[in-house]
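Example 5.3 — Acetylserotonin O-methyltransferase
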Amino acid sequence: MAENQEGASSEGNPAADMYPKKILEYMEGFLISKTVFSSCELGVFDVLLAAERPLSAEEISQAIGASLDGTERLLAACAGLQLLNTHRDNGPVCYSNTEQASVYLTRSSPVSLYQSIQYSSRTIYLCWHYLTDAVREGRNQYEKAFGVSSNDLFQALYRSDEEMVKFMQLMNSIWNICGKDVVTAFDLSPFKIICDLGGCSGALAKQCTSAYPECTVTIFDLPKVVCTSREHFVTEANQRITFHEGDFFKDPLPEADLYILARILHDWTDERCIELLTRVYNACKPGGAVLLVEALLHEDGSGPVTVQLYSLNMLVQTEGRERTAAQYAALLTAAGFSGTQHRLTGKIYDAVLGHKET
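Solution (predicted structure tokens):
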């Protein structure tokens, strides 16, 4: 045995010859995120979209009001990340947006992720600075990150009018991309009266009225959210979308055929989820249903890795967690719903449907 060990040593430790590529990529992952965040915040992609031609680093630096050296480095990184195209003629290197950058990273695009990126950079990123504390303490980190009490989740989430609008813009951008898939995962056409609990900006309500022309949708949310939604997101032209102000844990819920809870239950403990779902069950018409829109974990919890990371984000920011389809079914059953089904959309968010018997 000693000879074998000496032989292995003379040939070198195999571990010393390994290259930890994935670990290094993970260590540097935040560098990529902040490169994208800062490029959006500075308006790099907007400038290139407006120019309608490739621009040099000097032209871009002047347009965004930044140093030439810093801009050159930022543009080179964006090109390396395949967010920008490079053009090398006889003069200096010039840059243009890739198709995905024009579609998702410019402010004017109808499916822009710009606002979502800003929220990630200025809110989520700061909370994640305290991930170690969140794991140790088992609670969210709003107090350390922003100096506000986290006893009331939405008081922390909506700690200022500006922060509330940013959060609503985040949700708006997500449902503009993923909303159609979740509202068509099941055929919801039998449900004519729909209540979107915590409907926020109304983006998902708009997807419902687009997919199901015979339905009407009531957005139930806090008074200040309703006010902001009316002012910034839902115009009077959306005649099939109405509002109902209230706290869904305290106030009576409007009667409906279908209730949508999109990215709501993942904010709360199991006990609070059952409390809310029981209120929904009691308000729901016989033969009605509830649609949960969530990012579903595999049943053994082994993935997807994005959802596992989202669950850590729930630890940092909320009282809740991401769950499996079976765990959501158990919550629905505890509240009285039956016949639970789920559908995977192939995108970030999936759908779970529970029924109230006639």
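Remark. Confidence is low (pLDDT under 50) at residues 1-10.
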